[in-house]
Amino acid sequence: MHGSASFLRCCRSGLSENRVAPLPDSGNLLSENSCFFMKRDIPNILLINPWIHDFAAYDFWAGPLGLLQLGALLREQGFAVTFIDCLNRFHPEMPRKNGSTRCGRGPYPKKRLPSPKGLEHIPRQYSRYGILPEHFEKSLRTAPPPDLILVTSLMTYWYPGVQESIRHVRSIFPKVPLLLGGIYATLCHAHACRYSGADAVIAGEGISKITGLAEQYTGFSVKAKFDPSDMNTWPCPAWDLRCKNPAVPLLTSKGCPFSCAYCASGFLEPQRMTRNAGHVAEEIFYWHKELGVRDFAFYDDALLISAEQHVIPMLEEICRVCPGLRFHTPNAVHIREITKETAELMFRAGFRTLRLGLETTDFAKRGHLDHKVKEEEFRRAVDCLKKAGFEKNQLGAYLLVGLPGQSLNDAEASVKTVKESGITPIPAWYTPIPHTALWQDAVASSPYDLESDPVFCNNAVMPCMPGGFSWDHISRLKNLL
Ligand code: B12
């Protein structure tokens, strides 16, 4: 495997001679990967993936990719890094069934919570997803004392889980600086500054900022060993800090050239960047060889864009270097880019779950939403995929439901059209997102005060659906499916 030394460098450099290797079988009970220090002159940075609070959550190849990317960079620069995952499905003190896994997916443990204020009328059970608070506290108490704590965040409406996680951390490490970053921190910056409990909230990408932040808060001075504008110089995310990896998420590019009205990608990742084929194949090979991983999930916003330069050489390299693995695209791919060649290559490389970003089949009236696919492009793509060998249950088309001004009848019509095409419709309930073109329409059409509290943007409450949440809406769609 050419160049694999660079990946070994990334993943092994965490175990410097100042630390002893993790105790056998202790990883889960303590922090995910507790490395103890003989010397206290190297600052220890504690990474935390917080709980989810929601009406429903399921692990579809989820993982804190951004946080562990920062962890890998810090480790490479000589910081000691520990990780606690509040969403660890494999915690040894949790019931076994949580650890069950289907191609890397599986249910999170959950514990019932009272519904958030203003959502008490929703007839669904609100829960904390993840490990129990006592397990989190035990991990915090037994972790090497941190000099800096980094907490990530994902969905805006999951912020109550972030708040609760930070409260627990504060009760144990009241004086250690705690920084919050991630998607909620970026999309709802002012809200996070006010309510999260973090010392500082960092908006936007973290790669170019993390060295400076770590230096500023620990006083430890380092030289950056990577170029923030070149993904090929970054070490792979520190997935080895997770106690178990049923699947590994991959990021082979950043950004998306489309500016769809419902999506925040353009705001979150304004710059398009790609990795080269060898770099990606090397990472996949590495995780397969080191951790036995067979399932990989692409997190790219635009995996198939500029296929000739990016995905085609990358998949050819994957077929050559690491055949026999399974790949999934839980974040949809662009339909227009699916050709005979890309379809055949994806099939040959081992793609098993392919999600298409269709959103609606009302092709004539979709102009206010996006310009990413025409009807004939959709039909041609489905044809190419079927001819390449994909089966109906491997091909799912995401359809947005509950958009401002959209009736359930419109959504039902899309479901029927997708079924007729011979692939699987997958309704995705719309969540309003700040900094998107559709945000103001969403605010105007919703009975909730979306601007006052991100919790009202939870798609499980159907925030923009006329009449609000209803089991009838769900069962009408389920019956059609
Ligand atoms: C991959 C992905 C998923 C994955 C899961 C991801 C995961 N981590 O578990 C899957 C496919 C399952 C998923 C599902 C959904 N997703 Co999604 N997803 C994404 C996507 C494409 C990438 C996220 C990611 O990992 N990026 C890569 C890493 C590197 O970036 P990052 O985490 O932001 O980290 C960087 C910075 O934030 C920062 N950082 C992060 N943490 C910290 C901490 C500190 C201290 C610092 C300093 C910095 C820092 O540095 C990192 C490196 O630069 C984003 C879009 C996007 N471009 O971000 C949408 C996105 C987050 N998803 C979104 C949506 C709508 C959904 C769904 C609701 C879709 C639906 N209707 O079904 C579901 C809900 C899932 C659920 N209920 O479980 C929305 C967010 C909506 C919201 N209200 O918040 C986004 C923004 C896309 C959009 N439409 O605009 N998603």
Give the helices and strands, then pairings.
Blueprint: H1 4-12, E1 44-49, E2 52-54, H2 65-76, E3 80-85, E4 110-112, E5 127-129, H3 133-142, E6 148-151, H4 159-172, E7 178-180, H5 183-187, H6 189-195, E8 200-201, H7 210-218, E9 248-250, E10 253-254, H8 265-268, E11 273-274, H9 277-291, E12 295-298, H10 311-321, E13 326-333, H11 340-349, E14 351-359, H12 375-388, E15 395-401, H13 408-421, E16 424-429, H14 439-445, H15 471-480
Bound molecules: cobalamin.
Residues 57, 60, 62-67, 69-70, 150, 152, 154-157, 179-183, 186, 202, 205-207, 213, 251, 263-265, 268-269, 299, 301, 330-331, 428-429, 431, 433, 457, 459 line the site of cobalamin (B12).
How would you describe this structure to a colleague?
- This protein is of the alpha/beta class and 481 residues long.
- 31% of the residues lie in helices and 15% in strands.
- The protein folds into two domains: 4-218, Cobalamin-binding domain (Rossmann fold); 247-480, Aldolase class I (TIM Barrel), CATH 3.20.20.
- Strands 9-12-13-14-15-16 form a six-stranded parallel sheet. A five-stranded parallel sheet has the order 3-1-6-7-8, sandwiched between helices. Strands 2-5-4 form a three-stranded antiparallel sheet.
- Helix 11 (340-349) packs across helix 12 (375-388) and helix 13 packs parallel to helix 15.
- Cobalamin is lined by residues 57, 60, 62-67, 69-70, 150, 152, 154-157, 179-183, 186, 202, 205-207, 213, 251, 263-265, 268-269, 299, 301, 330-331, 428-429, 431, 433, 457, 459.
